[in-house]
C-alpha cells in the first residue's frame, strides 16, 4: 500500500479511537474518492456464538467510523465531525470467520453538514452485507478543547 499523507492521517485518527483499536480495525485505502477500512473477524465481534454471526453493533461501529473518516478525504484539513444521523439497511448476514470491509465516500459537503454513503462487504463489493447513509456535523478545525488528535491531524495535506 502506498503511504500517502491522507492514509497516514487516517491511520493516526483510527489509532486514537480505543474501540477501533480493540476491534483491530485498519485503513486499507484512502484517496479523494473515499476511504476503505477492514474489520478482521474475531470472537469479539460475534453476536451469536452458535452460528458465528457478526453482531450488528460491530457492523454499525465499522460503518459509522468509515463514514466519519471519509470526511478526511474531502476536507482541506482535519475537522471534528460528530455523527448526526446514521441509517443502516441490512441485506444479509456476514459470513463467519471472514474479514469485513467498509468503503465510504462523501457525496455532499455544506458549511455545516457532510453527507456520506457506505457499504460493508466481504468477498465482493457488489454484494453488500449492509449499506448506510450518514450525516456528520462540521464543527470546524479550530475548536478549542475537543479531540486531542485534532492537533496532530490538522496539518495540511500535500
TrEMBL record:
It comes from the Bacteria. PANTHER family: 1,4-DIHYDROXY-2-NAPHTHOYL-COA THIOESTERASE 1 (PTHR43240), BLR7284 PROTEIN (PTHR43240:SF7). NCBIfam families: unchar_dom_1 (TIGR00369). Keywords: Hydrolase. InterPro entries: HotDog_dom_sf, PAAI_dom, Thioestr_dom. CDD domains: PaaI_thioesterase (cd03443). The keyword Hydrolase applies. This is PaaI family thioesterase. Its EC number is 3.1.2.-. It comes from Pseudomonas farsensis. GO terms for molecular function: hydrolase activity. Residues 52-126 form the Thioesterase domain.
